[in-house]
Structures are given as C-alpha cells and as structure tokens.
Write a structure and sequence with these properties.
This protein is α/β, with parallel strands linked by helices and 304 residues long. The protein is built from twelve helices and nine strands. Strands 7-6-5-8-9 form a five-stranded parallel beta sheet. Strands 2-1-3-4 form a four-stranded parallel beta sheet, sandwiched between helices.
Length: 304
C-alpha cells in the first residue's frame, strides 16, 4: 500500500484494491494464516457497532493475534485526554489502531501522532473497509469490477463516498441518485472523477432514482438517517420516500441485478419489506466479506 495506514479509499491504488480482494478471497476459502501471532489490535470506538467490532475481533483472532476494545467512555478522545497523547500511548502498547468515530479530522490527527498503522473503521466522511468488502462481493457475483454499472440510491453519505472512490479506482461506473441538498461532498466527487478518468470509469450525479438504476448491474442503498443525525429522521423520511429501493425499482435495472446494503437496514424506509431475503440480495455475503477483507488489510499493514 502507498501509505502505512488506511484512512481513506484514496490511500489505495487500483493494484492495492485488486490485491486485497484476491487475498481476501483466498482467506475466505480457508487458506490458513497465523501471520499475526503475538500482534495486538486496539479497537477504539466512539460509535456503536455490530459488524465492525465482531469482524475485526474475529479477524485478528483467526490471524493469531489479539484485540483490545476501548469505548469512548473509557478513553474520552479529545476530552479526558488529548488525541495526540492517546495515539502516542497506544502506539507503545499495540501494533495497530482501528478507529470508529465521527470526525475524519480526528482520525487523521490520531494517525498523524501514532507510530503504528491506523485503520478507518468508519467516520462521517468515509467507510473504506465496507467499500472494499463491497468490491469483493461484486467480483464474486459479477466476475469483475471494470465496466460494472453500480447505482447508489439515497443519501450521499460516508458509504456512498467510499463506494464511489473504490468504483472509480477500479474502472467501474458509478451513478448516484439523491434528493437535492443530500449530495456527496464536492471534493470527494472531484477526486473520484479524476480516478475514473484514469481507469476508464464514469461518475454520474442524478436526482432521479429511476434514472440512476436503469440498466444497473448493482443497486445499492443505505439508511436514510445515519448515527448522529437522529434529530433529522422525520424530515429525512419525507425527503427520501421516493428513493426507497423496491422490486418495482429493480425491474429498471439489468435482469441479473444484484442488490446491496451495508446494514443495518430498515424495512419500510430505504428498502421494501422482504428485499433483504430476495434472490437479488447479496447483503449477507457483503457482511461476511467484512471479516475476510479485514484480515487481508491487517496482513497488508502489519506484515507486508
């Protein structure tokens, strides 16, 4: 990898992504690896988690290492103790720090002061581990990334940002259908368009969700209200109502369309009830792949 930490999908090259996916698929097939025996991973979480916490914990265990979970109440990042001091102390104890927090700038400050690799396990700006698991799932279902048409419907949030960047780096085409005022960050879009131009992909921003999914190979959505936005939930339900992904919308996509969602999902909001269990859904494959791609990331940062 071009950097010693994974703070953004932008830290990766096309080759990095392809190599991580290939290694993850090997590990998923049961290729044994105890390469991280004796290594310790700190899980520093300001936000609650199911998949991220369990998958990193199990990943480290299966690689022969150990994890230490640290909640915000235990650490008080930037409140009880300065971020720089937390980074420098943890660097004396552990071999890697995985951070799940709100602010991308907090993550970057911690990484700046740490002398061990830092992994972004989610910020308000990006979710790179999720995007890499998504790319792996697409490879498994479609056999490739280059030229695949990915349609994202909903909020231009952290998941959309990382998915867009990953698509652009691998030559996939990315369309996002979103309501006005909920667009992805302009700087992320600009960066993705540069990557896409270099790798033969295309980035499109649309307001019409039907236009976004027409002819898509992949239809992807996420929750309408992310952690920290709970006060906006009622407003968001009204604004995003036309953006619900349902069977009728999927008929506009390619006949062998694959439906994706990072979970947790809310039936009756961003998805129609029953969609997670439909033949098109690969949502639980995505969730499983979080485990394997994180093993590949940990190997890459701590061994290679």
């Amino acid at each position: 990898m071009a950097t010693r930490s994974l703070l953004s999908i932008s830290n990766l090259t096309t080759g990095d992504i392809n190599r991580l996916i290939a290694r993850s698929i090997e590990l998923k097939k049961g290729k044994s690896s105890r390469l991280l025996s004796g290594k310790v991973l700190a899980l520093l979480f300001e936000k609650p988690s199911l998949r991220t916490k369990v998958s990193f914990d199990v990943a480290m265990h299966q690689l022969g290492g150990h994890t230490i979970y640290l909640s915000q109440s235990e650490v008080g990042l930037g409140k009880r103790e300065p971020i720089a001091d937390v980074a420098r102390v943890l660097s004396r104890y552990v071999n890697c720090i995985t951070v799940r927090t709100f602010s991308q700038s907090l993550l970057e400050e911690l990484a700046h002061h740490a002398s061990v690799p830092v992994i972004n396990a989610l910020t308000d700006e990006e979710h790179p581990c999720q995007a890499l698991a998504d790319m792996q799932t697409i490879v498994e279902k479609k056999g490739k990334l280059k030229g695949v048409n990915i349609a994202y419907v909903g909020d231009g949030n952290n998941v959309a940002h990382s998915l867009m960047l990953a698509a652009a780096l691998t030559g996939a085409n990315f369309r996002i259908g979103y309501p006005g005022g909920y667009e992805p960050k302009a700087e992320i879009v600009a960066r993705a368009k540069v990557f896409a131009a270099k790798n033969g992909g295309k980035i499109q921003l649309l307001h019409d969700p039907q236009e976004a999914v027409t002819g898509a190979d992949i239809v992807y959505t996420d929750v309408w209200t992310s952690m920290g936005q709970e006060a906006e939930s009622e407003v968001r339900r009204k604004v995003f109502a036309p953006y619900q992904v349902n069977q009728k919308m999927l008929t506009l996509a390619h006949k062998d369309v694959v439906f994706m969602h990072p979970l947790p999902a809310h039936a009756g909001e961003e998805i129609e009830a029953g969609l997670l269990d439909s033949p098109q859904s690969v949502v639980f494959d995505q969730a499983e792949n979080r485990l394997h791609i994180q093993k590949a990331i940990l190997e890459e940062l701590l061994i290679n």
